[in-house]
Amino acid sequence: MLDVFSTEKTASSLWEQLQDHYMKKSLANRLILKQHLFLLRMHECTLIKSYIAEFSAIINDLDKIDVKIEDEDQILLLLYSLPFSYKSFRKAIIYGGKSTIKVNEVKEYLLNKNRIDTQLTGESHHDDSEQVHDSREKCNNRSFTGNLKHKNLTCNYCHKKGHIRSECWL
Q1: Which residues have CB under 8 Å from 30's CB, separation 6+?
Q2: Roughly what angle, to the nearest 10 degrees, separates helices 48-64 and 27-39?
Q3: Residues in contact with 45: Cβ distance below 8 Å, sequence separation at least 6, in sequence order
Q4: Global confidence as pTM
Q5: What string of pLDDT tens digits covers the 170 residues of the chain?
Q6: Which residues contact 36 (CB under 8 A, 6 or more apart)?
Q7: Distances, alpha carbon 33 to alpha carbons 9, 14, 22, 93, in Å
Q8: What is the DSSP letter of 152?
């Protein structure tokens, strides 16, 4: 594999070879990237900023191989990949009364919602590494399984405890 790329003399030609090899516009690449996008789900303990970056990276990779996902479709994919705790946010965006909306606006709304939520809970926003550590610690300590009011119920779809069918991500 490395022999193919070792003949390149400049960084730009090597980069072009790598792009041609890994970002081919083949059916397999298109389907794999679409699969990543359609199956992407944010977990309760994931930071919204990193999740938006992951979502955007997949959209950018699709764009590089000439697969265009319309703004409205991106918005729906983003909104419905968020955890159940974003249900009210999702409804506010969808039924908000606007005639048009851009995906970048929704991303900005999500980041603003996160900032407001952080300020209301009193958590510090100064050190991202500290915030990541705190959120992971909280998630590990309580082992979040979904909406807490359903913690003793079993899903009729996946048969796992902690959520109901309407909240099941499967």
Answers
A1: 62, 65, 67
A2: 160
A3: 135, 136, 138, 139, 144
A4: 0.63
A5: 456 566 777 888 888 877 777 667 788 889 999 999 999 999 988 899 999 999 999 999 999 899 999 999 999 999 999 999 999 999 999 998 888 999 999 999 999 998 888 888 765 444 444 444 444 455 554 444 445 566 678 888 788 877 777 777 66
A6: 58
A7: 31, 23, 12, 26
A8: T
